[in-house]
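Q: For a teaching handout, I want to show students what a protein-ligand complex looks like in token form. Below are the inputs, and the small molecule is pyridoxal-5'-phosphate. Please produce the holo structure.
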Amino acid sequence: MKNQERWHAAMQNNYGVPPITLVKGRGAEVWDDNGKRYLDFLGGIATNVLGHAHPVIVKAVSSQIGKLGHVSNLYSHKPALELAEKLQDLVNEPSARIFFCNSGAEANEAAIKISRLTGRNEIIAASGGFHGRTAGALSITGQDSKRTPFEPLLAGVKFVEFGDAAAMRKVVSKKTAMVIIEAVQGENGVVVPDVGYLRKVRAICDEYGALLAIDAVQTGMGRTGEWFGYEPEGIKPDIVTLAKGLGAGLPLGAMITLGDRTPAFKPGEHGSTFGGNPVSCAAANAAIDFIVKKDLLKKVSTSGKYLKVMLVKVPGVVEVRGRGLLLGIVLDSNVATAVVAKAMSNGLLINATGKNVIRIAPPLIVSKKELSEFIKVFTRTLNEVLNG
Ligand SMILES: *Cc1c(COP(=O)(O)O)cnc(C)c1O
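A: Here is the structure, written as tokens, with pyridoxal-5'-phosphate included.
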């Protein structure tokens, strides 16, 4: 049986049937089971910050699994302690306290639960925002197509237009436990709010004593050229959620509270069996060390600027949104799905976040040569789709 038939015969159909089967990768390259090579500009959806099979990750993970693979959170272990301390440094806040889990949805579930401990139960989120697929995370996700089949969801959630501080001011009140937004809306097509938006939302939250949570699951771990994506606004959120890039390809999420406004969980109030397991934490520690050592944040900014300059010149592209290596390429017609399929046959992995938007999120280590190859193949692909 071919792999597509096997998938169809054994898997739930929530992803549809994937067109290719991947067998190995190295850096920004992957190969399928026919030996065909692809340039991977999606990076496991903004997750493989150091690409595939990076030597420092392979070494950290192999060494850790050979020593201590899983212990539960009834016992302490060094990889989690080390990672928690690194994250305190990265958010630049010694008061930060970290809860580890396995995914972005779980990090946001933890944020929802901890926000309840304020005694308030209203949450404000942004339309178009994405926070995950579990019941709680879906309840704060501002995309009707994903929500509707599963309603009724959590009560007390209100959505406002993303980027509209005046609209935010109208809905936030003394009943608001938490406002949760992304610094850049990734799944919604890399939508960047105007400069000053996060600062205004921070001020509104301060005025009403509401927590401000930044979902940095997609923007985090250097992807935007900053560690988390909110830094250019000079704000300090009360809660930051992370996953995707955090484990550099291993399942790992985190909910970080900053400052003393967020109530603290008491023993027994929350938990996760696998959360922050030694192997995932070892991968995260190795990735952070490597990003720091190689000054990758600067490289990410430079790479992003180069891609933007080159991509806006491509016929059929009207705008390139985003920062660093999280970019949304807006096309002048609704051909994104066709472009993704044609790109795949041309040996390039990208994805569509809407009818006319392509998202790219290559590894932070992507080379100048690979950026040039991407531009060449993308230009040719778009031309083939638009001109037959
Ligand atoms: C992907 C994503 C999530 C969900 O993460 P999972 O690990 O798939 O649960 C949440 N928030 C944002 C901003 C994301 O991009």
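A: Two things your students might notice: Residues 57-293 form a domain with the Aspartate Aminotransferase; domain 2 fold (CATH 3.40.640.10). The chain has a mean pLDDT of 98.
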